[in-house]
Write a structure and sequence with these properties.
Length: about 375
């Protein structure tokens, strides 16, 4: 009867309940009682004449689908954060509990016209996340959405597609095979009844469900006016983690993500481990510490390292007295360190001076 996210209807449902609201509209209740405008009520009555809920439920059942509402055991309570704009109910196709799957889920979104870089990164991130037990949520669109779903499916993971059409409609048509795989291996979810086709506004409203359903949203590629940014903004407004993957600064498809990161509205992430650390359990989903390779010089004790730094990079080197002053050590102590460095192949004696070894000899520990 209504479009997704209709806050006016949501407020009235909160006050009267869905069944009482529909009965009142059919009975011709005055607008003042329902706190809805006369024009809106006329539109609802016209739609109600063409609605057959029992037939819709039976068609959903034959396609392996079902309909859930707030208060059902499968209803994800985090959707209630949308307030009056929360879904009245959800059509679901596939096995598994949406509530259980959403408890450990992350949404990955981005541009439809993505670059090969963006497609690769989205697939890699989602494969890594799926291998760590995360459920991937996206919108089944071309580009980043498709790569996100495919990345999860490739490693035997679970993925959920939130659609802007009925769960029996393969949209976009080019992703029909992917959508069927998601239904078999995960879930298809929609606010819209069966056979409903998408429009531009339904895509935007769909994004709020993606943002609310998951613990966080990752934007892989997005231009400055990309619809994926609306998902990120809703996630931020709902106090969900918002993350972005940097791309080439020369690409327009990176500009929206970079603007999010630069403004502080998104956290920079580079792999699945970093995403998991942000949205996971404290102390349990930690990403490995990142550091460069450990070089042999890094293992030297501080006094030895100071003496090595004092040795000039000249062919004649320097006498121990000068090296001792620069290292801040006594001459005797400096000589001991020089002989240690000589044993390790870093320096060599050149008459009364010490100099760096041009080509380091193999040395023991």
């Amino acid at each position: 009867m209504t479009e997704p996210g209709d806050a006016a209807v949501g407020r009235t449902i909160g006050r009267l309940g869905a069944v009482a609201l529909v009965d009142a509209i059919r009975a011709g209740a005055p607008p003042s009682l329902l706190e809805l405008s006369a024009g809106r009520l006329d539109a609802y009555r016209a739609r109600l004449r063409d609605i057959d809920p029992l037939a819709d439920l039976e068609r959903a059942r034959t396609r392996g689908g079902r309909f859930i509402i707030p208060g059902d055991p499968e209803w994800p309570s985090q959707l209630d954060d949308l307030g009056d704009g929360r879904p009245v109910g959800l059509w679901i196709r596939g096995s598994g509990s949406l509530r259980m799957l959403a408890l450990r889920s992350v949404s990955v979104v981005g541009s439809r016209a993505c670059t090969p870089y963006g497609r690769y990164v989205a697939g890699q991130l989602c494969s890594q996340l799926a291998e760590r037990g995360w459920v991937i949520v996206s919108g089944a669109a071309y580009g980043i959405d498709a790569a996100a779903h495919q990345g999860a499916l490739a490693v035997g993971g679970i993925t959920v597609a939130v659609l802007a059409c009925g769960v029996d409609v393969a949209y976009p048509p080019g992703n029909a095979e992917l959508i069927e795989r998601i239904a078999a291996q995960g879930l298809l979810v929609s606010e819209l009844p069966l056979s409903t086709h998408p429009n531009r506004f339904r895509f935007v409203l769909r994004n709020r469900v993606i943002a609310a359903l998951t613990r966080g949203t990752v934007v892989v590629e997005a231009a400055l006016r990309s619809g994926a940014l609306s998902t990120a903004r809703r996630a931020r407004d709902l106090n969900r983690h918002t993350m972005g993957v940097a791309g080439p600064v020369t690409s327009d498809l990176s500009a929206g993500v970079h603007a999010l990161i630069r403004s502080g509205a998104a956290t920079l992430v580079t792999d699945g481990a970093e995403i998991g650390e942000l949205i996971g359990s404290i102390g349990e989903d930690l990403a490995p510490r990142r550091s460069g390779p450990v070089l042999p010089r890094d293992l030297l004790e501080p006094p030895v390292a100071r003496v090595l730094e004092a040795v000039p990079a000249t062919a004649e080197g320097a006498p121990p007295e000068r090296l001792a002053r620069q290292a801040g050590l006594s001459v005797d102590d400096t000589l001991k360190r020089l002989y240690e460095l000589g044993s390790l192949g870093y320096v060599e004696r050149y008459g009364a001076h010490w100099r760096l070894v041009r080509r380091r000899r193999p040395a023991g520990p």
